[in-house]
Amino acid sequence: MYRMKTRVLIFLFMLCSLSLGAQIRLEGYRQADINPELLTGRWKARWISMPGEPANVYGVYHMRKTFELGEVPSRFIVHVTADNRYKLYLNGRFVSLGPARGDIYNWNFETVDLAPYLKRGKNVLAAVVWNYAEQKPVAQISFNQTGFLLQGNTEIEAVVNTDASWLCMKNEAYAPWHKPVLGYYVAGPGELLSASKYPWGWEQSAYDDSKWLPARTGIEGGVKGSRDYPGRLLVPCPIPPMDLQSERFEAVRISEGVKVPDGFLKTETSLTVPANSKVHLLLDNGKLTTGYLSLLFSRGKNAEIAIAYAEALYEGKEKGTTKSYSLPAKGNRNEVEGKRFIGYEDKVIADGGEGRDFTTLWWRTWRYVDLTISTADEPLVLEDVYGTFSAYPFRSEIAFSAPGHDELNKMLDIGWHTARLCANETYMDCPYYEQLQYFGDTRIQAMITLYNTHDAYMVKNAIEQGRQSIVADGITMSRYPSSLHQFISSFSLWWICMGHDYWMYRGDEAYMKTLLPAYRGVLSWYEQWLKPDHSLGYVPHWFFADWAAGFQSGEPVREKEGNSAFQDLMYILTLESAAGMERAFGIPSMADHYMQIASAIRGTIRTKYWDAARGLFADTYDHRSFSQHVNSLAILAGIVAGEEATEVMERTLNDPSLIQATIYFRYYVHQALKAAGMGYRLLDNMQIWRDQMALGLTTWAEMPEPTRSDCHAWGASPNIEFFRILLGIDSNAPGFKSVRIAPSLGNLKEVSGTMPHPAGSVTASYKLDKKGKLTARLVLPAGTNGVFLWKGKEYQLKSGEQVLTVE
Asked: Which of 38, 305, 430, 528 is most deeply packed, by most CB within 10 A?
């Protein structure tokens, strides 16, 4: 009866604030450039597509609009989107790509100022639009209809609105191309391009489009909130355009069948492949990257060019098939001799023409590119091969120095590179295999953003997409956007905690308040699994914890009835995070309710899970298993504190019989280290990262060897902890309005760093003399105060610079 009343109460609380949450929408990155009239109702522009083509089949299409201008205006704003994707050109110059990934109810459009590319007289807008249909990446949601939409901002730009005056054609040169890889792969097909069918120069003004067909027009564009609108609900893109920077390969590591000329790859130096020959080139980028590969070539009619991409090469001889989940080791990533190449692939069949430029439609991930060229009766001239780096435009705003400890800066560099490659239009678990935004991963990625940049767009977009993924039951999907639903119930809890992180480090309470109904729904769903003994039953779906040996399918050890310390402790931490937000800007009685549940569960943890003989918390009631994970969470939840927490942490680190945390969950182990007063041991626990550097990785891997993915941003947590634990800089109040600085220097005698803060930046610089006296130079931004803690003593800090000398 109590539980039923509680759930009814929660439902009423959700209803009383749901109207506010339902109306929230993120402002666009270029919101100020959007005509307010376009943010209500329907547009004049219509969705267009290829006439005579089925609505949802694999296809690549080109669309053009020719228009005249008497004068070049100072601004010419248009809003553009497509399904699945587009690239937009004006007078032959690339101007935009998108749309940034979203869903049917939140379909992003990009806002672009075309004025810099316009000219007096004739102008030509040209777009390539493609639909992967059933072969689309899992991260790609579609309305299952190919479409392109471009809307002028005002009457001045209305001349380019999409309608039947646009011309279009289907590009028959493209077909999907599949080359299996090892492990779970859902990032979309490769491209098979027959150059003889390609409409070369289609984007240029001089191209003859007289044989193209008038576009088929569909429904008008309609923004989110339009009355009775059955199409994609348009919203302004909430994030900036992606970085696009030219990037050169570092070296040719293997060359078979041809002599490579000096300067090839480094400059536009051509390589000629003789007729009736086969050439193999292994290109090394020097580090992992994400971007669009371009291959420039001439002649070589009927030559086949296979372009394969891999993060690293594999050791050993080929066994079994690429569908196997038994992963071989990759060894040192810098070594290629005696190894085998496995990677997805694009393929081009040359037409014998001059000045051909193959650039992939969607971006790829590679350190190594394997080129295999088979010519027919005509030599092929390979004029250039290069990449265009593409990723979210993060800018690192940190500084760090630890004289004599260069490996720490290298760790930060690798971590930042990893974080960048795992962020494109959303955060992603990995750029090569999945490109999916998993909310467990994303919590760590968001914290990396908050500790390394002033950027708020990406973090807020990720939080919002968590809300957009919620199903009627009340929980989020594990990952979103995603065209294939998957539920990791634990990630719904980490999603709430990610919101709490954002509140603590950036504030934004007006927005955070709109999320509370969604948080209540998640926690209400969890509450139905509470048992009379104040612990959770067996929570359904995939309860992922870590890819630890001893955790089947990554799940913590649980009994049939549930009985899992991991579940209970994670629930406590989330309830208390939600309670803090409810008390600050929500419904205080909800905060009381959450704290009552948390307190009831907390009161049973020691009775159920504490093993006095081992001085550790067991994973289950029956004490058959122990893990670093559970004991770390017990410390973070405050089940043990002070000297006892230190003792538990010592055993957690030193007992090899415990299930060991891998790269992902080290984030929580290190937080527990700090909470137990042992932050000084942080650098002693970096061996996982040192091992990866010794293997030549340029990004952090998904798991210790053998690993599927070489790039998982959940491993970049040192980019947080070198500042939060080592330098000791942390938020001491919502919005980072107060700063808490409690350094844990370990063996370092000198270290300094600067990190971003909503009001500017925070700097901490430490020197420790031979007698143990610490000199600390601390700089807080204007309007901010704080505290400094050292050896149990607390010192008040004010904005500006201050120098403390403490024993």
From this structure: 430
pLDDT at position 320 over 80? no
DSSP E strand boundaries for 326-401: 344-349, 356-359, 364-374, 380-391, 399-401
- Cβ of 98: how many Cβ atoms within 10 Å? 20
Amino acid at 609: Y
Residue 315 confidence (pLDDT): 95
Does residue 153 have a cis peptide bond before it, meaning omega lies within 30 degrees of 0?
no
Looking at residue 652, its amino acid is T
Phi, psi values for residue 289, rounded to 5°: -150, 165
With CA atoms as reference, report the closest residue to 547 among 661, 400, 633.
661
According to DSSP, the residues that pair with 272 across neighbouring strands are: 381
**pTM listed for this prediction:** 0.96
CA dihedral 233, 235, 239, 240 (to 10 degrees): 110
Mean pLDDT for 666-690 is 97
Grade residue 27 by pLDDT with cuts at 50, 70 and 90.
confident
* 14 confidence band (pLDDT: 50, 70, 90): very low
Q: Cα(145)–Cα(56) distance, rounded to whole angstroms?
A: 5
Of 400, 415, 484, the residue nearest 445 (C-alpha):
415
Q: Measured between alpha carbons, how far is 639 from 643 in angstroms, rounded to an integer?
A: 12
> CB of 520 within 8 A of CB of 590?
yes
Pairing of strands 304-310, 85-90: unpaired
Nearest to 499 by CA among 489, 513, 487: 513
Taking each helix axis as running N to C, give the angle between helix 439-452 and helix 406-421, from 0 to 180 degrees, rounded to the nearest 10. Answer: 120
Burial class (CB in 10 A: 0-12, 13-18, 19+), 254: middle
613 contacts: CB under 8 Å, gap ≥ 6 = none
Nearest to 298 by CA among 348, 231, 232, 369: 348
**Separation between Cα atoms, residue 179 and residue 321, nearest integer Å:** 12
* Among 98, 166, 88, 97, residue whose Cα is nearest residue 127: 88
Kindly report, residue by residue over 428-482, the tens digit of the pLDDT: 999 999 999 999 999 999 999 999 999 999 999 999 999 999 999 999 999 999 9
DSSP string, 132-162: -GGGS-TT----SS-EEEEEESSTTGGGG--
Containing 636, the helix (H) or strand (E) segment is helix 628-636
- Contacts of 767 by beta carbon, 8 Å cutoff, 6+ apart: 749, 750, 774, 775
CB-based contacts of 192: which residues, under 8 Å, 6+ apart? Answer: 174, 175, 176, 177, 346, 347, 348, 349
User: Which residue type occupies 526?
Assistant: Y
Burial of 46 by CB count in 10 Å (0-12 exposed, 13-18 middle, 19+ buried)?
Answer: buried
The answer to whether residue 5 scores a pLDDT higher than 60 is no
Specify the residue for token string 């998640």.
Answer: 522
Q: How far apart are CA 558 and CA 563, in angstroms?
A: 6
Q: Measured between alpha carbons, how far is residue 439 from residues 45, 301, 477, 629 in Å? A: 36, 48, 9, 18
Contacts for 28 with CB less than 8 Å, ≥ 6 apart: 34, 111, 235, 236, 237, 238
Our CA dihedral for 551, 553, 558, 561, rounded to 10 degrees, sits at: -170
pLDDT value, residue 447: 98
Does 21 score more than 90 pLDDT? no
Q: Using an 8 Å Cβ cutoff, are 400 and 762 in contact?
A: no
Quote the pLDDT of residue 318: 56
Q: Per the structure block, which two tokens stand in for 57?
A: 């089949």
Residue 354 contacts residue 378 (beta carbons within 8 Å): no
Pairing between β-strand 760-768 and β-strand 774-780 as defined by DSSP bridges? antiparallel
What does the alpha-carbon distance between residue 217 and residue 807 come to, in Å, rounded to a whole number? 76
- Where b means 16+ CB within 10 Å and e means fewer, 101-125 reads bbbeebbbbbbbbbeebbeeeebbb
